[in-house]
Amino acid sequence: MAGIYIHIPFCRKKCTYCDFHFSTTFSSYRTALIIQLRQEFQTRIHEITAPIASLYFGGGTPSLLSPEELGSLLEDPKQYTRNQAVEITLEVNPEDLTETNLAAWQALGINRLSIGVQTMNNELLAWMNRNHRAADTCKGLNLLQQDAFSVSVDFIFGVPQQTEADLTAMLTLVDEYPIAHVSAYALTQEPQTLLHHRVTTGKEPQLNDEQQVAHYHFIERALRARGFEHYEVSNYAKPGKRAIHNGNYWKGKAYLGIGPGAHSFDGKTKRRWNVSNNAQYLKQQDWFEEETLSADNQWNELWLTGLRTQGGVPMARLEAMGGLRTKEGRMLEALIHQGKIHVQDASYCLAKDHWLAADGISMQLFRAGLKD
Ligand code: SF4
Predict the structure, then answer these.
(1) What is the pLDDT of residues 160-218, one digit of tens each?
(2) What is the DSSP letter of 13?
(3) Are 244 and 300 within one domain?
């Protein structure tokens, strides 16, 4: 099964910590960009041969598009997914959860909302330069009818001023509303962000690793106690509610990425990424790059993505790639002996206590680094 990702590179404001690709001044070319997204889809859909399991509108802020604009972007994908049960996710900012929008999104066939709650502390939301406040989140969630959408929320933890009381306030949403999925991300300090500038000029404290680890475990305990499965380092789901779209990324399935900054993968060896520049994307000149993954890079990616998930790295996939070499076998045995990796359902899985160190442990099983 394959997925389609459509990137909407527009936002109302620039959040302090964000390094995604978006623009806040887009009114003059908004329509042209939507036409270009449709053209790219029509030109490239043949690259996907597997049945489509998911369609994901990400950004940026896809929920700032009008229902008519979203409907236009859905016309082509719907032709290709006729008669298939497809997960259609819309990333939503809380201020866009209005009665009118919800009814329109449901009528368009959107069946999953990924809502950027981030925190319920208004001071932290202001510090993040978010456009919404906690009251917008509550007001929007109150409008959700049971079963109209599968609802996921995004939380951010490890913010310097954040307390466990703040974490409790956001986790309480899970008790009060029909939320089936949570993505909880540690705040990171990315280059080219206002947060990075403030930290490096001494206006904000450094992010605190110990606090981030404590918050991670606090959230994990709380969500497990509420019946959520922790199925990927940053993702939790009620039984049967795992994200199909992101799950396919982690399983190495094919996906087609449409829009500026979007990435694609053919499910085998070929990766492509579109330019993160709206003007260049519109002109379609020098607007994407491609690479073919070497066998070593495929091996490394399998460990990197697999060990971050509950399902781990299937032995059958390692065998299909030629199997473990002697040194790798020894390293794996050592990691098993140390209690970091165990075998479950014919897969190598990372022990839960070590999930936060998943990337570092994967690298111990890498071949020749990520690049050739
Ligand atoms: S709304 Fe999302 S994509 Fe836009 S600036 Fe904020 S975090 Fe980034």
Answers:
(1) 999 999 999 999 999 999 999 999 999 999 999 999 999 999 999 999 999 999 999 99
(2) S
(3) no
